[in-house]
TrEMBL record:
This is AAA family ATPase. It comes from Thermohalobaculum xanthum. Pfam families: MipZ. It comes from the Bacteria. Coiled coil: none annotated. CDD domains: ParAB_family (cd02042). The lineage of its organism: Bacteria, Pseudomonadati, Pseudomonadota, Alphaproteobacteria, Rhodobacterales. SUPFAM superfamilies: P-loop containing nucleoside triphosphate hydrolases.
Length: 272
């Protein structure tokens, strides 16, 4: 394979929004569609994405049938004493890992920590598609922009949104194609509510102001915790028979398909 893989980065500055869950489901969706996928986990402390993959690998060994797995490269923090030197080494390590995975993979899925780090910032610059999952509440909306509590109007972008803007500028300066920024609305209530309508209104207003697309995410479901322990996703529940499938799981699986379809990734036409 020649050229650079399409880099998909899962990023925001808050934990618990579902970055690793989305990264894992996206990997399996792409793999089941016939694509070779590389994986990077830049959360050097928690490594939730890679731990998810390790659980998957262990399940495959237990049932005697290897499951679909991505090509993984582990990146370590620089040990350089000087901050600038450390930052330069980490940026180079990320660029090298993406280049190496691009030799065999069409896509590279990158999970990032819920904090600003050198690696996280570099990943945002490298992102062809940036996916920002947020929980569907005004509290989590603060990740994207500031809202006037009296009027409900958006008063400006957040620090994270400004970081994404900076990443876009750096991409443009290097002659790369524009980033496609997609915000996933996770844990959307099944019931109509005042908060749901209000969040929808302000997020649409901000999407026009700072340039991101809105895509459907995942509902709040207990199944996601069980899936993590077994290394499975909603797209391969039948593997190993570890979890019984219910109608709720079927509906959740459709959410995954809708999410991947909304991303409009190059060469991804259908999901199995």
């Amino acid at each position: 394979m020649t050229g650079q893989a399409h880099v998909i980065v899962l990023g925001n500055e808050k934990g618990g929004a579902g970055k690793s869950t989305a990264a894992m489901h996206l990997f399996v969706a792409l793999a089941r569609a016939g694509h070779r996928v590389g994986a990077l986990d830049l959360d050097l402390r928690q490594q939730s994405f890679f731990r998810y993959l390790q659980n998957r690998e262990a399940l495959g060994q237990r049932v005697g049938k290897p499951l679909l797995m991505p090509e993984r490269i582990t990146i370590s923090a620089s040990r350089a004493a000087l901050r600038e030197q450390a930052a330069e080494e980490e940026r180079a390590a990320l660029a090298g890992a993406i280049a190496q995975l691009s030799e065999t993979c069409g896509f590279v899925v990158v999970d990032t920590p819920g904090a600003v780090t050198t690696l996280s910032e570099a990943a945002h610059v490298a992102a062809d598609t940036l996916i920002t999952p947020i929980n569907d509440s005004l509290v989590d909306f603060d990740l994207l922009g500031r809202v006037d509590p009296a009027t409900g109007k958006v008063t400006g972008p957040s620090i994270y949104a400004e970081m994404v803007w900076s990443a876009r500028q750096r991409r443009a300066a290097s002659g790369r194609l524009p980033m496609d920024w997609v915000v996933l609305r996770n844990r959307i209530s099944m019931l109509e509510s005042r908060n749901k309508r209000k969040v929808g209104k302000v997020i649409e207003e901000l999407s026009r102001r700072i340039g991101f697309r809105i895509a459907p995410g995942f509902s709040e479901r207990v199944i996601f915790r069980e899936l993590f322990l077994n290394g499975l996703t909603l797209l391969d529940l039948k593997q190993g028979g570890a979890i019984s499938i219910t109608m709720s799981h079927v509906a959740a699986r459709q959410e995954v398909r809708d999410m991947v379809k909304a991303l409009n990734l190059p060469g991804v036409d259908a999901l199995v």
